[in-house]
Amino acid sequence: MRAVARRLATIVPTLIGVVIVTFLLTRVLPGDPAAYFAGPTADQASIDQIRAALGLDQPLPVQFAAYVKDLATGNLGNALSTGQPVLTELAARLPASAELTLTALLISMSIAIPLGILAAVKEGSFIDHVCRVVTTAGVSLPVFFTGLLFVYVFYYLLGWAPAPVGRLDVYFTEPERITGFFTIDSLLAGDLETFRAAASQLFLPAATLALFSLAPIARMTRASMLSVLSSEFIRTARAAGLRSRTVILAYAFRNAMLPVVTTLGMVFSFLLGANVLVEKVFAWPGVGSFAVEALIQSDYAPVQGFVLAMALLYVALNLVIDLVYGLIDPRVRLEA
Amino acid sequence: MDRRAFLASASSAAAAGLLGSGLPWARAFAQGAKQDTLLLISENGPNNLDIHGVGANRPGYEAAWNCYDRLVTYGIKTLPDGSRSYDKDVIAPELAESWQADDKGITFKLRKDAKFHDGTPVTAADVKWSFDRAVTVGGFPTTQMAAGSLLKPEQFSAVDDHTFRVEFVRPDALTLPDIAVIVPAVFNSALVKKNATEKDPWGLDYTKNNVAGGGAFKVAKWTPGAEVVYARYDDWKSGPLPDLKRVIWRTIPSAGNRRALVERGDADVSFDLPAKDFSEMKKAGKVAVASTPISNGMWSIEMNVTKPPFDNVKVRQAIAYAIPYQKIMDAVLFGEAKPLFGAASNKPDDLSWPRPAAYTTDIAKAKALLAEAGLAEGFETRLSFDLGQGVVGEPVAVLIQESLAQIGIKAAIEKVPGANWRGEMAKKSMPFMINFFSGWLDYPEYFFFWAYHGQNAVFNTMAYKNPALDKEVDAARAAAASGDKATYEASVKKMIEIAYDDAPRIPLFQPYLNVAMQKSIGGYAYWFHRQLDYRSLVKTVA
């Protein structure tokens, strides 16, 4: 527990750094939000008016002080692109992104880990080659391309997938918000129709993301399994006559998991990044597309809010991974 | 987990995902609601439901147009090609049943049965409050009101509950047309005042997320960035009750997916399509398409006359003769635009606007003109365009760059991010650019006032100041106000001729607004604001 507290204490300087850097970065960006939002027929006077309304006519330190003060009160400012408070937007959109990313990660894990194990156990066999081809293909196809291809084939040509119109088909109503995950909320509400609709909307974008993240997980599982399988305790286990299945899953895999978990953490974070493109293709109302939209319009508040939220998320994620290490491998716990 | 178990679970998961969509009862459930529901898709959604709001975007104008009433609106006419468009020459009643103009102002008689969405009757006091708001809040609404000489609250008065009067500050032919645009919408003043705060006396924060009007549609649900759901206001009195009971407007950022959705029949209307998609869909014939020239709008090449060598009219004309006009029409617009080049003369023979200039692609002539200007060797410059409109701007820039190289002009292409474009325009820092301008009010002198006049508005990116031209523009405005047709015609023709001969701005083409819809959708009409009016749309289900 003390280790957790100590870890948490190290977060503080990180966050202060993030706040300062994002503030400065957004100011360095080219573009004049006041002119952009003044609209097509604005004259200089109305541009200046908007600049004053946004507080952009103040010197930078004053803007920064105002920003920090707002942050302390939980006010992240307003997003000009959607007109809503950034906090509301992030809260509404984060579950959408999280649902997509986690589903993708689950799909990816359920394919990549068994594939990696099999490839390691039967090194050089047919399945090992399949593993190599799948992972190479997955990592070399950019997500927006796979996304568009999937839409073209599974929606446009075959008609198997539903229309890529976001989280739910137009004629369904959103389930009552409990977790913000439509699939879970609809199940909690006992509404199977909505569940099916939400799950079917989720499948293609999640599969697109999953394909992209297969490679690192499968490769890491394979490499780490290979090194464990060649170690002496495995030979001993085999010599002792343990079943091959027990040896591989109970002894080898458990020891091979540590690097895999590290990779999972990394994969999760870069999936959140790759999300941006997938969200654009599938009209998914997540945080990624929101942040990109804001960036294009030089809309500072959402970009700052997004970076801050992501930083918090990563910090939390790293903490969780550190804790999981301890569970998998007691040695790590002792060292901490 | 062994291989079998894994394969079984993976394939069942995949099957569950894919089957979900094809379920027969999901379709059946949707069928009933589909009949009077319109599914509309477009690239962006609104960021504000109130056009008076700070930074309200174009999709926001659409929400305001359909959810609020104005005193008057425009009529609808059928164009020669069979498509329907608003009619700038016919002002039609909306909240006002009738109106009477005299020398000093206009008196509007409001209809007595009109109610806001919450049931409160619409009174002249609401109209007065709304007009006061539009001229006071600043920014775009105030600028737009000023375009019709609607400048200050003292001009507006509520004579009695159902009589509203506007006093003129000066005679201006655009006053009544300006009252029919989106900005002078009528707000439920009691409701907004109740939700206003000391810091926000006009209740802009409230109307950003809530409709406080009495228009034909109400916003039933709005998920910013994703979806707007409208429900018809059944008690609407300011026009024939719309056929559609619900309109669902989804934001689909990917152009390819918007096209797929319409072609598969899953979306009813896809608004504002790229020219390429439009021309291909028109050829395929699966869906109905409509395209209307954007009124009072043109894409053009603009040269800052304060920056040499563009201060030399010969250089400007040389460039006008070096533009690959037809290539731009074919390769960028797939023929889907109105050419604004190759006229017999720069001297207009009628008042139609935008009209072609007399320039064509003539490299020999361009070279000769450049030599006359003493620049036979050519020169270096940079050609800017707005990345926000890159679909058109970028290929046009590349074609022009290629063509200018033939007369020795090396133009480096500069891509300006959308957020930056307006600022660069205001600074007048770009020497040479590709740009688009359109005016809501469809009058040539309105275009010239913003884009050519020496008052040097943001849109006069050329920083062009020519007293001879200003004289004609001012004369045309005055003649329009006083109803002096002969002077008006002469002045408009003269100002176009001067502008085209002097060539600070070289017209390229007048773009079209493209819409694709299912064949079951009827009643589409083009509006000056280039957004969709749901009120006239009908959906017939076979």
From TrEMBL, chain A:
Protein name per Swiss-Prot or TrEMBL: ABC transporter permease
Subcellular location: Cell membrane
Lineage: Bacteria, Pseudomonadati, Pseudomonadota, Alphaproteobacteria, Hyphomicrobiales
Ranges for domain ABC transmembrane type-1: 94-325
One family name in Pfam for this protein: BPD_transp_1_N
GO molecular function: dipeptide transmembrane transporter activity
Superkingdom assignment: Bacteria
InterPro entries: BPD_transp_1_N, MetI-like, MetI-like_sf
Organism expressing this protein natively: Hansschlegelia zhihuaiae
Membrane topology label: Multi-pass membrane protein
Residue stretches spanning the membrane: 7-26, 100-121, 133-158, 198-218, 248-272, 306-328
Keywords: Cell membrane, Membrane, Transmembrane, Transmembrane helix, Transport
Keyword Transferase: no
GO cellular component, one term: plasma membrane
Similarity annotation: Belongs to the binding-protein-dependent transport system permease family.
SUPFAM superfamilies, sorted: MetI-like
UniProtKB/TrEMBL annotation, chain B:
InterPro entries: Peptide/Ni-bd, SBP_5, SBP_5_dom, TAT_signal
The UniProt record lists the keyword Acyltransferase: no
Protein's GO biological process: peptide transport
Keyword Transport belongs to the record: yes
One Gene Ontology cellular component annotation held by this UniProt entry: ATP-binding cassette (ABC) transporter complex
UniProt entry keywords in alphabetical sequence: Signal, Transport
Annotated compartments: Periplasm
Family indicated by similarity: Belongs to the bacterial solute-binding protein 5 family.
Protein name as catalogued: ABC transporter substrate-binding protein
Species classification: Bacteria, Pseudomonadati, Pseudomonadota, Alphaproteobacteria, Hyphomicrobiales
